[in-house]
Amino acid sequence: MTALHFQPVLQRLPFLLGGAATTVLLSVASFAAGLVLAAGLAVLRAEGRGAGRRLGMAYSTIMTNTPQLSQIFAIFYCLPLLGVMVSPFASVFIGMALNAAAYLADILAAGLGRVPPLYHDAAAALGLTRRQAYLRVLFPHALQTMAPALANHFQIMILGSSMASIFGVEDLTGRAYDVGATTFRILEVMLVAGALYALLSVALTGAFALGRRMFEGAA
């Protein structure tokens, strides 16, 4: 077995960190967009009647039972056929956000289901509209129970974002392939990339937990 030689890879660490920044941007943006869409889906499932409720359920069923990679491929190739030209980054962002929305809607719906009826009655007694009740009372209270599940899915998205390299996005994995091709040290660069993914995952989920505590403290 050839001895590991990290020096050529470590010399290109700033290049890899640039890819890590793209990974962070892609993960955070797609999670945030997915969470907004998921909130709408969760409310549709909770408040909708007939077709609206079935539509919300059908979306989650379809998206959670098909591979995320297939969904991104569909966006990447189908949008140009419809005359909508988007960059590889945008294609992956849209695909990840739409996929995340389905899973996050399940989490939000479960969290809302655990909110005691007393909170619904209190919001109504205060004269809040349904939109105000969800934003000011129901979602903040549900966050206390669903935050760990949201953090877990965010972590999954960080690691899953590595598929962006398949579409030519210069994320951490994409740049790791570039470094491996120029240094012929593919094992070493993948070990370094793996360590960077671990650092990103721990740091971002830690920031997520800190933000949650600050939100709960301010509530």
TrEMBL record:
Lineage of the organism: Bacteria, Pseudomonadati, Pseudomonadota, Alphaproteobacteria, Acetobacterales
Species of the source: Nguyenibacter vanlangensis
Name of one Pfam family that matches: BPD_transp_1
Membrane topology: Multi-pass membrane protein
Transmembrane segments: 20-44, 72-94, 149-169, 189-210
Main location: membrane
Family from the record: Belongs to the binding-protein-dependent transport system permease family. HisMQ subfamily.
InterPro entries to which the protein is assigned, alphabetical: AA_ABC_transptr_permease_3TM, ArtM/GltK/GlnP/TcyL/YhdX-like, MetI-like, MetI-like_sf
Intracellular or extracellular location(s): Cell inner membrane; Cell membrane
Gene3D superfamilies reported in the protein's UniProt record: MetI-like (1.10.3720.10)
Residue ranges of every copy of the ABC transmembrane type-1 domain listed in the record: 20-208
Protein name listed in UniProt: Amino acid ABC transporter permease
Keywords attached to this entry: Cell membrane, Membrane, Transmembrane, Transmembrane helix, Transport
